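Hi there. Long-time user, first ticket. I'm pasting a complex I've been working with (about 909 residues overall). I'd like to know whether the download I got is complete or cut off, because the file seemed smaller than I expected. Thanks.
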Amino acid sequence: MISRKSFLPLIWPAVFYTAAFILPVLSILKYAGFSGIKLKELLFSGYYAKVYLFTVKQAFWSTVLSVAAGLPGAWILGRFMFPGRRLLKSISAVPFVMPPIIVVLGFILVFGNSGIINKFIQLIFPHSKPFRILYSFRGIILAHVFYNFPLTIRIVSDSLSRIPMDTFKAAKSLGAGRIRIFFNVTLPIILPSILTAAAITFLYCFMSFAIILVLGGSPDFSTLEVEIYRLAKYQFDFSKASILAVIETFTALLLLAAYLYGISRLKFSSEESSENTEVKPPVQPGITGKILSLLYSVPVFILIFLPLFMIIMYSFLYRPTRGSQQIFTLMHWIDFFKGAGSSGRTALKALSWTLFIGLFTALNTVITASLAAWRTNKTAGILSMLPLGISPVMLGLGFLIISSRLNISMNLRVVYIIAAHTVISLPFSYAVISERLKRIPDRIINAAAVSGASPFRILTTVKLPFAGKAVLTSFIFSFAISAGEMNSTIILAGGNITTIPIAIYRMIGAYNIYGASVMASILIIISAAGFAAMELSREENN
Amino acid sequence: MNTSSLIIKSAVFHRKDFSLFADIEFPEGKFSVILGPSGCGKTTLLDLAAGFITPVTGNIFEGEKNVTELPPELRNIGMIFQTPALFPNMNVLKNTAYGLIARGWKKKDAYRKAFKYLELVNMKQYAQRMPHSLSGGEKQRVSIARALCTEPALLLMDEPFSSLDAGLRHTLRNQIKNIQEITGVTTILVTHDREEALTLADFLVIMKDGRIIQSGKPADLWENPVNLFSSSFLGRTGILKICSYRDIDGNNTEITTSAGKFIINKRNFSSGKIPEQKETYAVIRPEKIRIAESQGKTYPQGVISGIVEQSEYSGSFWKVRIKPEKTTDCKSAGDILEINYSGKNPPEKGIKVFLEMDITGIRAVTD
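Hi, the file is complete. Here it is re-exported in full:
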């Protein structure tokens, strides 16, 4: 029997969700609808039409190239057994948890005009001009591909390795050769997963922010997301910003609908593969297969680790005067720990803000997600996924509108930031915790209930301890998300609040690459914890 | 249908800590069943027959043709698996016609033939349905049609009924048997279910630890097991350990067990002669023993006594386990007898009964 009391735990999630997600979205809708500016006017203004087209164009090419770059990896991972296979599988998750600003900094250090690649080229051809790839369309695409190709590797190789062995045997026994099996059997079965990877990649790139902000730079390479930020933050034009936000969300929803339609046409019941059937194990490749695997995985290792390595290395370098050689130094780290010098002070301040916001975000996320997962039901599941549909910049805009309307003090901005970060981490946390809670055998809950425990007591003494690891995982992951989050933070933070990603962004702008590298190294460590938490939850779910 | 026998000649295959040795001929046009416990290598043997794996040494012939090095797609086989393994992206008709199209048939002709085989398995009306909309039994029937549609020389089945529930399993089993009789295709089915094996097989092969223990007609294997494993794996059997022999007249031998002494013909030794050194057991099927009214004559007719251990009702009769009483100097070593009792009330646990054994049904087998 469901008592009225058993709904008590849902009060906080409901209040929080309404205030931190529904209200900001509604206020944007309201601004967009009653602002007096016509949608047509804005879109035909030329500039915004160009921005819109560019947003779609860069997302399209990023998606095509990310999927193209990821597919060979998916094939190798799903089909071959080779040295470093496990490593390739785990590091393919690295870019997911790397905050975009880290990728940006890493790219500057690797592909920038005086990055390692150009240095290398000039070492061989001293008189050649530097190879310019950043701050251009190519630079944006390259960064997006780096960020997203592992997604294709993961999703498609998962789907490949779940095809039952018997399906291949059946095709062979019926006289089908390799090529026919690939086109008739394998490809149609993995096609939905390729489409899924492409759809997610497109959405990521469509709403990409930090990469465009830094690597795009000029109005020629601006996207909706960056325009919303500029309009809200610098021109206080909430109306235009809101309209752009609505257009952005509408486009995303349209794409999502197209994707769902496509998948429903393509997807066959996965019922057969979910049975406990033997799947085709990866095979020892022949010499060609081995060479191909190495030719793919070695550059991937380098591509993923080189930027991270360069960041950490730069945190230990210093150039005393212009034109002199860089020397090894502990100076930046010493400054940082002492809070000495301007960049040391900024860094220490940024770290304290990051820790403060991160801890409260993680705490709030875990509490909200646990309480919402209290009674597992479909509605909570769907509601928890909705925040994925709007961009963090848009969320930030919503908060800005509310605070300007209600005349709320700017000192409360840290609360908005925590709330925004919580909304952003909620989908993942809810999924992890509710998935675990679902696995508690009913008889254990019944045993507690017949012993006289109230539903709330059952939650705190049986359910949550059972889901302990999941709670810890989502705590760490939420913390990592918050620490790396820049989009909603930059729009909400006034001059007095600086988190690590914002500090890195500003230091890059001020050409303080060494200081940025120290901050980024710390962020890498936090992200590594997030990565470990994600791997832990994957293992637990397997 | 152009069917042929399958001959596996001294084939050896190794995988990690498992090795298989097989030397066997599956007769043309017959329903052969490979029976054995999990991990005995029966699926590996089937994979060899299909060409999914190649033997390290030895040869495989389809009739006269040496197919050892031929990949499965170039052999003329049909295969049915534990799961239906239908291609999820194709409808029933396309699944069924797949093999023909892969062989270069025109679609129209391939579909016409596919319809014929769908009709054979009563699935014609589902031709346009997608696999996910079918039940487990329906899917498996489509997979049978698909395997037969290419009119293979050899039909291989790897525990095709194991994922179905009992009722469906029974129906499908009968259907398969009928289809095999109609088409006359040489069929090899792998199973660990002895009832299934005994019902279906024209030719039965028993395997253990990567070796073929025995092969032949099911009734022969039932009555003349070559060893203790073969005897007990095929069905309920009584076991008495033999501790000594005495030659009577060159043809007959007196054996001594803890339960008594019996005189059996030398033919009833699985090896044809008294085995040396190896431990030997007298095995006897339940139908060869009945409860005697009185003690009667004990030697050499084969009447012994025992204590009832357990009676288990099985529908039409009772399965009774009896612990034989020790009457000789032999050690008993876990001896047990099984009988079928068809009376209304079974003998109660703990009471003493006299058992009359048909001594021609006693087989002396090694471990």
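A couple of notes from our side: DSSP finds 26 helices and two strands in chain A. The radius of gyration of chain A is 25 Å.
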